[in-house]
Amino acid sequence: MMNNTLKAILLTSMLPFAANAAQELTPWYVGGGLGVNNYEPNCDMKTMKSCGKDDPYAWDVFGGYLFNDYFGVELGYRDLGRAEWVDYANKMNDVGAKGLSLGVVGFWPIANRWSLSAEAGAMNYLLSNNKEYGSEYYSDSGIAPYIGAGIGYNITENLKLQAKYRRYENLDEDKWNTLAMESNYWGLELSYRFGTPAAVAPIVAAVVVDSDNDGVTDDIDQCPDTAANHKVDAKGCTIYTETTEQRDLGSIQFANNSSVVKSESFERIEKLATYMNKNPESTVLISGHASDVGKADYNMALSDKRAKAVAMILVEKYGISQDRVEAKGFGITQAVIQGNSAEANKANRRIEAHVTGVKREALIK
């Protein structure tokens, strides 16, 4: 019988001649592998008196179909090699398993040309024992599940070399219940994917134009009319700097014990709204205040009503977004004139508008 190693070498050497005339890679591939196999429990089997030698060389051939670059299915034939031992009846056992396999395989690229793989499937095995050098031969068949993992390297777009590990379970002989084995396989596989990688079309240099002379060509310039002295980004648009500025628009007075906005105050509120509409990134804090007359808790609530009254006008009358307007009462805690004289009370019954805006200026070359 042909040596297993020679079989694998002949099979893999034939792979490069299997390519078809396709002009791109197909989902089909074929391959072969050679490795070593270890049956277990081997020397721990109850029927074993002494260990003999193993012929650990295993080989396989296979064909596969890829559903995409990450997932496929494989059909193959595998010979897991043989092992020898002497049982308690002083008879030589020579055991091996081989058969058809079917499984799924997944691939994960990890670097240029490198990938990891994982597989799972089942092997329809024939387990044979050439007992007493074949004079008491017997065999049995069954289904053995297996799992595996590997790492591969694409030598070319078509040719891949992989290092593989597989674990087979339940390689059992059930007729006489003499064998119950598992198997560990390590080996190398060479596979060939049919087809030819699509040729890369030659790159023709295009004529590029920079109409506004900003250093960004028209084919990628998203702002074609930038000023000649403006610095621009990679898209050809002016680069702006943004600085935060704060403005105090003064105070609006209220009548004693009132949160009603006076009619003469609407002109100042309108100016505030105009500024905020022209500067859509600006925000405003409306702070309400009260005179030092009465209880502090009451004055705090009154000042809050005054702030909210002005905020409501900005939002409902002038359309300023609610999330740009904050209203807060401070009661008598921030008096502009201390005491409770008529002058102090008049000055302290107020709201103040503190605007924070963002000023944008173009960067100049």
The average pLDDT value, as a whole number, equals: 83
CATH class value of the largest domain = Mainly Beta
**Total strand count, please?**
13
- The sequence of SSEs as H and E is HEEEEEEEEEEHEHEHE
Describe the structure.
The chain is mostly beta strands. It has 2 domains: 4-193, Porin (Beta Barrel); 240-362, 60s Ribosomal Protein L30, Chain: A (2-Layer Sandwich). Helices cover 14% and strands 48% of the residues. The protein is built from 4 helices and 13 strands. It has helices spanning 4-13, 266-278, 296-316, 342-348, and strands at 28-40, 48-55, 57-68, 71-87, 92-111, 114-131, 136-154, 159-173, 179-193, 240-253, 283-288, 325-329, 350-362. An 8-stranded antiparallel β-barrel has the order 1-3-4-5-6-7-8-9. Strand 3 (57-68) and strand 4 form a beta hairpin. The longest helix has 21 residues, at 296-316. The two termini are 84 Å apart.
Write the layout of secondary structure elements.
Elements: H1 4-13, E1 28-40, E2 48-55, E3 57-68, E4 71-87, E5 92-111, E6 114-131, E7 136-154, E8 159-173, E9 179-193, E10 240-253, H2 266-278, E11 283-288, H3 296-316, E12 325-329, H4 342-348, E13 350-362
Parallel strand pairs: 11-12
Antiparallel strand pairs: 1-3, 1-9, 2-4, 3-4, 4-5, 5-6, 6-7, 7-8, 8-9, 10-13, 11-13
Summarize the structure.
This protein is mainly beta and 365 residues long.
